[in-house]
Amino acid sequence: MQSGEQMLSIAGLHADYDFQSIGNYCPSMTADQYTFAAYCEKKTDTVFVNTGHEAYPYIVRSPQYLDELRHEIAHYLVYSRCDTVAPPLHVEIEGMTNSYAVMYLGANRDTLNSTGASFPAYAMNEQTDQAAASAHAGTCVVD
Description:
Helix content is 50%, strand content 7%. By secondary structure, it is mainly alpha-helical. Strand 2 and strand 3 form a beta hairpin.
């Protein structure tokens, strides 16, 4: 947990463990039992971590925890370059965010792709990698 907080701090972010409060900032985002962590562009300095997630005790003690946070930091970095976490790059935003976390933040591709097996929107491929590179370069719209 300390490593995660240090990593967030280096990125200029902090963790908020009151996951239920995310709806106060981003009403379209609801706290649920399935989301482990989330970034809300209306509270730009914060990553919300869901301690109520059923796998939280396991994940927070595994290397997956830092990769989950890298994914949320990637949302923040895309936002900082594109003024949105969802630039119109014609790919699944979560897959692009995973690609960004792998390509620029050192996340483990296999760990993040395991989420893509259950939730296809998180799957990475050549197109999500290209979109991540575009967003990183500040090219946030594809014609």
